[in-house]
Amino acid sequence: MFATPAYAQAAGGGSAFASFIPLILIFAIMYFLLIRPQQKKAKEHQQMVAALRRGDLVVTQGGIIGKVSKVKDDNEVEVEIADGVKVRVVRGTIAQVINKTEPAAKE
Prior knowledge:
Layout: H1 5-11, H2 16-50, E1 57-60, E2 65-73, E3 76-82, E4 85-90, E5 94-99
Antiparallel strand pairs: 1-2, 1-5, 2-3, 3-4
């Protein structure tokens, strides 16, 4: 009726590595489905923000659409949201560049 200690030990055995395989697979799936795409998106956003220049039409994270009138320093740009209305915006809050201006051709 009762299992002997030797039989119970043999039934619940198995390698310790085999018990970690599901955890390793779950982490690998999470990495490829969640972490890696997010890192790629963050890298693209950094490149977009670093390439901002005067004349670009941008959308802030708050939904304000404006034209970059001046790139002040590494962390700040000045955006004109209406005629004569300029606001200072932190570069990281630029969500999207709508129209990119082309650099002037040197003659």
